Model the fold of this input.
Amino acid sequence: MGLQFSPVLILFVLSLCITATLAIVSWRNWKTDIAPYFTLLMAAASLWTAGTIGEIMSTGLAERYFFVCLQYPGIVTVPVAWFFIVLHYMGGSRYLTKKTIPLFFIIPTLSIILVLTNPLHHLYYTGFMPVIENGLVVWIFLHGPLFWIHVGYSYALSILGLALVISGFLTAYDLYRRQMALLLLACVIPAGANIVYVFSLGPFPGQDFTPLMFTLSGIIVAFGILKYRLFSLTPVAYSRVFRTITDGVVVTDSEGRIIEVNPAAETVFASPARVLVARNVDEFLPHGTTFSELCKRKPVSGPVEIAFTREEGTTLYYDTYCMPLNPDFQKKNGCLLILMDVTRRKRAETSLEDAHRKLSLMSNITRHDILNQITGMNCFLEMSATLATTREQAEYVEKEKQVTKKIQQQIEFAREYQNLGVEIPRWQEVTRVLSRVTYQTDTGPAQIIVRVPPCEVYADPMLEKVFFNLISNARNYGETLTRITITGETDGENFRIICEDDGVGISAGDKIRLFTRGFGKSAGLGLFLSREILSITGLSITENGEPGKGARFVILVPAGAWRIPAA
Done:
């Protein structure tokens, strides 16, 4: 057995160390689903490189062929492992199962058997030709017909993997494009080197530098892992999201014809995709609802609720959003219709409303009976006042009248606020609410100025009472009142509604108890309940006016609870 040395061996030994290290590190430290495939790739490349080192050092044909047989499991495994990595990265991991993975190794296994049995049939390698290059013995293996089965299969996997990456590259975000560019580079470099060897295009016939290129690929992939979180942050295939999302998604063209639907949309329309596609979406919407009407409302303006009645009599409710596919909100490129099932929420709201109606009826009856008793009590108190013979008795009767009047006031006030939280919150245009309040409120000579831009807030239906209380509060406490100003302005992502007057203001001592139940004139519940009404949907109210110069109430509407109304 003759041995020979070449300086190129240093590169192959270094390459072996790098690929083996990457395989070990990946196996021990990398806890992702793609780690086994990368480990398999680097281990196969290491075996390929180790066999190449032995092949270069050998001068005899028998020894050289031994190392070829040794490295062949690595040679046939590399393209398969690389394809597994690409397929998993591009969201096709569902195709890699215990049943399908062995199928990918049928041709590689057959190739290994053909190489081992080549001395019997000479169909994989038809011959061997020694060549002296730079003082080294290089054996050129002449490829037989069965050799091209392995080459065709390996190149087919490589081309398919490249096609998957390129297709994803064209539609991916910048971060994923950088990742995919690295994958493309890591694939193209060794593939190019292998093509040069197989077709004898380079200056060194018979010498395969593909293992060296796989080392470079491993380094590129390692850089991608550290720099761009390659394989840790992978793009999700849009088709997979489209199929598995629980909301109904319908893609239409500019004329409203259905182009594509996901399984959830098939359930909504109670029709399979083959029936829906190419037909106008209006055919499947509830009677009285048209696709053009749905698309008139922008997504930021909130959903449109529609109801589907099934043959069995049940009704299903959906919140719908229509979004043009064109970024400038033009429908020329078609639209995306999203249907969110809110049936359970709708039924819960209906049940809650029914329970509140029953409670409200009971409260009305109870309150009516109590007021009747109070009326009777007032009659007896009046009679008692006429029968009082001493000053002390008259004082007691008067105190009883005051207590009775206080009870009556509280019951009347409770009637006014019995609907607090009964009805579900809704979007309300502030200027319309204020118009109703100012029309119904008598402020005497004081002027009410409203300067609120078009804005809708998501609040309890009793929002009107909040503004009524603020105006009444200014009227009751503003002895020098001449003007009430209500304005609106944005505050970052929030919106503020400011109600201020030029009355006497609120003292520092009263500010502390301002929103406390029972503080103030009458029943002392106006500002307390105003705060409760607003808090139902996350709104808040504060007072920051200057004593002696007027009160200033600020209603803060958080982001998500206000919006610009649709045109």
